[in-house]
Fold:
Amino acid sequence: MEFRKLMFAGLALSMMVACSQDDELANGTNGTGTEGDAYMSLSIEMPNTGNTTRAIDESGEKHEGTAEEQKITNLLLLVYNANKGDELQYSHIYNAVDLRPQAPNPGDDKSTIYTITPFQIESGKKKVVVVVNPLDGKFTDKSTLDLMRNEMKLSQDEISKLSTGNHFMMTNANSLANQNQQGEEIADKQDGLSNGDYYQDGSVAVDVQGTKNNPTSVTVSVERVVAKMEDQTANYSIKVNGKEDVVHFEKVALINGNTKFFPIKKIREQGDRTNDYVVDPNFEKQTEETINDFYSNKFENAFNVQNGENIVAKDLSTENRASFYTLENTMIAAEQKNAYTSGLYYRATYELKGKDKVTNIYQYGNTLYDFAGLQEAAKQLGLNLNSLTDESSQAQFYAIGVTKYEKGRCYYTYWIRHIDNQNNTEMGPMEFAVVRNNIYKLWVNSINSLGLPKPPTDPDNPWKPAGNTPDELIPVLDVTVEVSKWEERILDHEI
Structure:
């Protein structure tokens, strides 16, 4: 599949010409920095969120996101000396009041420019990092570049905070623009990069030589560190294909949410740059320990409510779309198994035609029955129910080859597919993955069979025999998937 260049969505940061109006702010006395012989300045271009949503397709039209997903509350700017071992040379935390909005460009009502006062710094080659809405306790005005390069582990509560309305954390959108197909930088890391080029670590190169009246300008793009999963099904009571039975979808939960990530997106240094490109801390070393890195990794616990709130499970409603924000979760093709793959997990009630939806349902062979129907069929099938009743356990019915669905309850799982390789017999790179700054919108279109009678508990592969991948699951749901990079492309997929 042709690689599509990752682009920022929501914000673009540009160093632009401006006049200093605040010497204290300019000289970084609230952060780190010294008065130097050159000047830089920072501008922020933000899209305006309208009332209409444009279609996302291969043309690359944007999904700007909601106002709450775009807002800048505060901003941490870090500038490192590229010639002195990435020494932190300037840092400052800017608040929203430090941003000065300007009128949109002529004829452009889709963006607004925000500027801050130029700052003074020593001249020379720099690496620039921006953290929008930094997570409390994880970043400071003295953060090192090594911190940005290395993995960070968060609690479930911290993950929730970095995707809180009006406080979505964003960092440099690591770009492949100055890298070849093998992931190698075209220019020397220290000497050959032009202003605005990206280093392998995601920092932006700039050679600062500007004056107070003509500061050096460079562009820095940022992106959200979380991905978004959103169910947009039009009707949650769906007739089963070829039958008059109805499946009522009730709840959805996030399964396998990652707790480890790189603050700046990490690009694989070697390999197929067509699609095998984004690396998370567990990329090539999935183990039992990896499973423990996930929150909401137990199917049987997915719908439990703790302390009056369940942040990984939500009611399904056409009025209020169920959505989840989660950290990036990627892996090599061979490791794309259900134990490690992020997805959505549905709870539903199956209703037989003409029966109440809370009726126990029994499956024998390929036929479904209520208990009275099972009793009648048993006489014809030679099935000995012995002393079993409608109150007997699932295990007791399993013993005679009958599957019992208590009160018709059943479960469906959809593993998030990032790139469809169009080959259901071979796993592709980045096929099952969650990548930051993407929106994964799902529509359940149709049902052609029951789900599972109880939550799947096999950690290696809850749907199929152990050792298989999620590439072709039991075909029970017809799902349309739109993968948007808070700007991007559409994928259609059936599971």
Q: What stands out?
A: The longest strand covers residues 246-255. The chain has a mean pLDDT of 77. The longest helix spans residues 371-381. The chain is about 10% helix and 30% strand.
